[in-house]
Design goal:
Two copies of one chain form a homodimer. In chain A, strands 2-1-11-10-12-13-14-15-16 form a nine-stranded mixed beta sheet, with helices on both faces. Chain A is of the alpha/beta class. The model of chain A has no long low-confidence stretch (mean pLDDT 94). In chain A, helix 7 packs across helix 8 and helix 9 packs across helix 10. Among the domains of chain A are: 179 residues, ANL, N-terminal domain (Rossmann fold, 3-Layer(aba) Sandwich), CATH 3.40.50; 113 residues, ANL, C-terminal domain (GMP Synthetase, Chain A, domain 3, 2-Layer Sandwich). Helices cover 27% and strands 24% of the residues of chain A. The radius of gyration of chain A is 25 Å and the shape is globular. At the A-B interface, helix 1, strand 9, helix 7 and strand 16 of A face helix 1, strand 9, helix 7 and strand 16 of B.
Chain lengths: 542, 542
């Protein structure tokens, strides 16, 4: 068989030869910008020419600080296809983290959307290694900044030939990189190869994966700076799907609904928060989106109530699981043919089943031994496959690989006999008690089932005998403030969870500390928590 | 990204872990044999153990002379996954060709279905290099033969462990091979790598390819000895589709329909002849197959009348194009969203559009220069991709690659601006006239449009000035025997074809010679044809 290198240049071939008429639509301040693959290809060539003129060579990193729009898509093609590495900068990083990733990746040039100048301006004078900034704008006045000279995107393109001599690339060469927004320590860089992007795309197009095809109109509301926008940009290129880009209007439900409606979206993709907003807006207005047949949802678990609301609105949610380190598609919640009707919703709420190309296991925290798929045992999800990271850029966090070559996701899950993954915790939050694991999330959900409890966060605290034991931090509902006892909660939990899962202590607090995105901040809880009392130790040993 | 080797072992992982309950059903003399992937996996392990015990090592070729059944599927898994090479023997080859391919491939062992013993028995004493024969049977009396000792498949398996230490394979290593049934010279061997099989499978599962998924029940009526059964066995394994095997009852319409109906086939696959038979049977009996939503059809062009009949029967045909050398999927007739309703049937009758992973071009016969996709120019189809041959086993026919690395298919086509491939001829039949090509097939169809003509075959004959010029061999309808003139046919063609396509001579014959499968045998026509007369030469130069 031919030694055909699996590269993103294949997507370029397809959009040019097979789908020149297909549209790419981008929302703008007023109306939309409308182009086609056929019009975009010469611009991709010009962009590659401009990059070369700026001194970008094979392997150089090119940063983008951009929303979801057609010019970002041009960069998605031109940068990797000329042999350079597309580094999509996460505009939600803290300034010090943004500075770190720009330095760590050694970005030579950064392309920046005009509206994001204030974000980069926080690093003015701090990123001297970046040689050039290229401004992407529609001609609006540029916000004040101290970033120095900026080149203009359209001016650069206009100076170049609409032909470009694309080099012969090796499939193992780097195509793109993306940093995880780790809650501890520095962000860690994941480098995608041309091969991994090609193979991931071949997966996304499959029926039991995201099922993209030429006849679909795809609306990626997941940022293009986040894990390849779930692989949708290249998948649309391979398939020839029409794309709708929201630019920076991602969180705004009326705008999302209007764009989906007027442009005829059939597949939409985004995190649960977006769909919560959209569901509320649709319920309120009575509007519906009858053309949308699939709402791809990932990033975090889908609340049951949200899926039920969306079902009522005629919007079918498909849960997908993955992470930056898995390109990101690891599993999808496509329901198997043998699942009885009354269990379908439960299964759709799981993290789904491994897609073709990805091998998955759950493993014992200590021994890395594989655990059974019985829906009971839980361990860390570990994955293998051609689009799974084998480590991080500059060898950050070498512990993420098992000795036998599996990537450690840090997600803790059980897997049922049908292969459905059910995530129960993160490895850093799970409580390690006497060689066994206790899911902090399951425990929290059980406690929050108590009618007098508003919020509960559970962490493990060091314990002399059991290594760790759970402590629950409970916030009472306002009307029960000061009127709930530990005993009452323990009694409530009795029979609902295994006896050895019972928290050793229940501590009442006024509010659970939260991160900027509203998740329980267990790091803060842990660092401020008093150690176990002697009494508690005695209890735990009973 | 991980250096994950793309091998068929991934299919083994999926059927074992994700789809143990899914069925494999095989027609038998009485009723069906029913098993599951879950039951098959230990047998695949046993089979690998048996192969090892027979002395099969990595890289050794293992022949199969088998119909479509579950044991052949076990061989499809065990042989490549243990590192050996599955050589599916085409039971329709002439004995001398069968002998050639067994010798050329150097098959160490041959697995043979009991009913096929008479075929191999024609080579008794002539294939000394084959060390072992393994009989696959349901215990019926063995036909008389002079092939010597045969081992028994089930006995071999029973002696082995249900575990097997699958080796770490490299993706470039050979997984399978298949010979073309060339009409001239010896058959030529195509070697598939694990990588090519894996990637081809990733393609087959895509929506705009064959769209296999877990919920489908797939009925491959295309032989498993023919081009990987169009990739369906591994695609079903990746997807977890239920499979229905017809064993040797492939051509029998009542049996095909009954099996499809009782086992709930949703996707069926086979050559046009099968569907002609099935359509006739359905029309006659009034039976229908409402669960079948896709009839994959390849191997040769679909006659318009057949597609129309099948449409009326509620059976949607999907045309796919490819060949042994392309694994085989090259293009599919999935209709693009922009095609107007009144052109849909025309487009479905083309050879379709290149699937993801395959690059295609049409090239000038002499210069190999690419020709435009204007629906007019035609040239040889040349292809590139990770599952396209780069040559043949033992370097047979090195001329099949262009200097710039494209595989020459030998098919002559035009491509319309939407990317639809329309095959017009074979390179060996197309008429090379003054540096331009004339499609013999188009010319034949034009002549056969004449009401007095029953059959017409066109070949090119050497011509002093134009290199070649067309000659038409025409058979009149019985009632017009001896009553048709050349002039009459020329006049009829006037305006229907380009003037320079007009045949220089029209020769009336009683019957067009045909091959064993009923195609025009132009080789016979060419070898027996008288050269041009002086008069004709004069005409051609007018």
């Amino acid at each position: 068989m031919q030694d055909y290198e699996l590269t993103i240049q294949h997507a370029l071939w397809r959009i040019k030869r097979l789908f020149p008429r297909k549209e790419i639509v981008t929302k703008q301040e007023v109306g939309v910008h409308r182009t086609t693959y056929g019009e975009m290809v010469p611009r991709i060539n010009q962009l590659a020419g401009a990059l070369r003129r700026l001194g970008i060579k094979e392997g150089d990193r090119v940063g983008t600080l951009c929303w979801n729009n057609y010019r970002h898509l041009e960069l998605y093609y031109a940068v990797p296809c000329m042999g350079a590495v597309l580094h999509t900068l996460n505009l939600r990083l803290f300034p010090k983290d943004l500075q770190f990733v720009i330095e760590d990746a050694d970005d030579q040039v950064i392309f920046i959307d005009q509206t994001l100048i204030p974000i980069l301006n926080q690093l003015a004078g701090k990123i001297p290694a970046v040689k050039r900034l290229v401004l992407i704008s529609n001609g609006q006045p540029v916000p004040e900044h101290q970033l120095g000279e900026m080149l203009d995107y359209e001016t650069l393109l206009a100076a170049e030939s609409t032909d470009y001599p694309w080099p012969q690339l090796k499939e193992q060469s780097a195509a793109a990189m993306c940093y995880t927004s780790g809650t501890t320590g520095n962000p860690k860089g994941v480098v995608y190869s041309h091969r991994s992007q090609f193979l991931h795309t071949m997966g996304v197009l499959q029926v039991d994966n995201l099922a993209l095809s030429e006849k679909e109109t795809v609306f990626p509301i997941v940022p293009m700076f986040h894990a390849n926008s779930w692989g949708l940009p290249y998948a649309c290129g391979f398939a020839g799907s029409k794309i709708i880009f929201p630019d920076r209007w991602m969180g705004d439900a009326p705008s999302v609904v209007e764009l989906a409606e007027t442009e005829g979206a059939t597949i939409v993709a985004g995190v649960p928060t977006i769909w919560t907003n959209v569901a509320g807006y649709l319920e309120q207005t009575g509007k519906r989106l009858p053309k949308v047949h699939t709402v791809i949802c990932g990033g975090s678990a889908i609340p049951r109530s949200l899926m039920e609301r969306m079902d009522k609105l005629g919007l079918h949610m498909l849960h997908a699981w993955g992470m930056t380190e898995t390109s990101p598609l690891g599993s999808t919640g496509v329901v198997r043919s043998w699942i009885p009707e009354n269990q379908v919703l439960d299964r759709r709420l799981t993290q789904g089943i491994a897609v073709s190309g990805v091998e998955i296991r759950i493993a014992d925290p200590a021994s890395f031994e594989e655990l059974p798929w019985d829906g009971v045992a839980f361990g860390e999800i570990q994955v293998k496959g051609p689009w799974i990271a084998k480590g991080y850029y500059n060898n950050a966090d070498p512990e993420k690989m098992t000795p036998d070559g599996w990537f450690r996701t840090g997600d803790v899950a059980k897997i049922d006999p049908d292969g459905h993954i059910i995530i129960v915790d993160r490895t850093k939050d799970v409580i390690k008690s006497g060689g066994e694991w206790i899911s902090s999330v399951d425990l929290e959900n059980a406690i929050m089932g108590h009618p007098k409890v508003l919020e509960a966060a559970v962490i493990g605290l060091p314990h002399p005998r059991w290594d760790e034991r759970p402590v629950a931090f409970v916030v009472e509902r306002p009307e029960y403030k000061g009127k709930v006892t530990s005993e009452e909660i323990r009694e409530f939990l009795d029979g609902k969870i295994a006896k050895w899962w019972l928290p050793d202590e229940i501590r009442f607090i006024t509010e659970v500390p939260k991160t900027s995105v509203g998740k329980f901040d267990k790091k803060v809880l842990r660092s401020g928590a008093k150690p176990f009392t002697e009494a508690a130790n005695a209890t735990a040993q009973r």
